[in-house]
Write a structure and sequence with these properties.
The structure is a homodimer of 134-residue chains. With 134 residues, the first copy, chain A, is mainly alpha-helical. Helix content of chain A is 54%, strand content 4%. The first copy, chain A, contains 6 helices and 2 strands. A two-stranded antiparallel ribbon of chain A has the order 1-2. In chain A, α5 packs antiparallel against α6. Chains A and B meet through α3 and α5 of A and α3 and α5 of B. The structure holds a DNA duplex (30 and 30 nucleotides). Chains A, B: InterPro entries: MerR-type_HTH_dom, MerR_fam. Chains A, B: This is Helix-turn-helix domain-containing protein.
Chain lengths: 134, 134
DNA sequence: ATACAAGTTCAAGTCGACTTGAAGTCAAGT
DNA sequence: ACTTGACTTCAAGTCGACTTGAACTTGTAT
């Protein structure tokens, strides 16, 4: 496949594909002249990458789930990411509850409200960063 | 309160407080010499801001929940954000399921697997962006 | 009065994930 | 043989949320 086909199949612009290759997330199998050639299974890989990105993982995180250079994936790493997602989901649920509470709480200062106070410990202590998806 | 007190109470560096003020998210009530003075309730506001940031909302999004310049909050906007979070949580849950599935699926290409295919429509179509929390 | 720690401003730098632009290369169709 | 359009490289730009650094001001403690 040439880059345009991969782009179409994956929904990603070719500039992104080149960038991903440069970062080692995907690889082209050769060149025809200057032009990259890809094997069809790269589309699979890209789907998984997009899934990871949609979940907020960084490209560096995502590259963990790919083994050295084969088309295989590291299933253990994948499950680990799934577990991380579980935690994130739990955290977001608590935050959502916090927001809903703040919306109805009568206390002038939310700090007078124990329900809210409990929630606040969530924010501020997480030092991992969500990653952009423009 | 002076900026150092607010910083301590909120857990945010003073550089961030100045930045937030510049962006209109908080306001100082006056100056003593050059130095900013804050009312105590700014700490409340900051807690809410941190909560929003932890949830992945941008500062622009967060400023929606603050009314013009008073210390009040826009409860409707807050509930709206909570609803957005619900959606995000649902999406993340689906993605997590997708990851778990990819970890166990035997198919060489996940594209041969309907379970996985269904999941993929999730990724790639969301064009809102999570925001960094360094 | 003098020093100094802590505040201030403003411009510039940083981070990750891309995108954009300029300038060049090339396969394929006419 | 020539054009054309899709590709290529590489450097630089962009976005949001801050941080950092240099140069300056000031309240407080001595």
């Amino acid at each position: 496949m040439d880059i345009a086909e991969v782009a179409k199949a994956s929904g990603l612009p070719s500039s992104t594909l080149r960038y991903y290759e440069e970062k080692g997330l995907i690889q082209s199998t050769g060149r025809k002249g200057l032009r990259r050639l890809f094997k069809a299974d790269v589309v699979d890989r890209l789907a998984l990458i997009s899934l990871g990105r949609a979940a907020g993982f960084s490209l560096a995180d995502i590259s963990d789930v790919f083994t050295a250079n084969g088309p295989q994936i590291n299933r253990a790493a994948l499950l680990e990411k799934a577990d991380e997602l579980d935690k994130k989901i739990a955290e977001l649920s608590r935050i959502r509850n916090g927001l809903r509470h703040a919306a109805v709480c009568k206390a002038d200062s939310h700090f007078e409200c124990p329900t809210f106070l409990r929630l606040l410990n969530i924010a501020g202590k997480s030092h991992h960063r969500p990653k952009p998806r423009w």
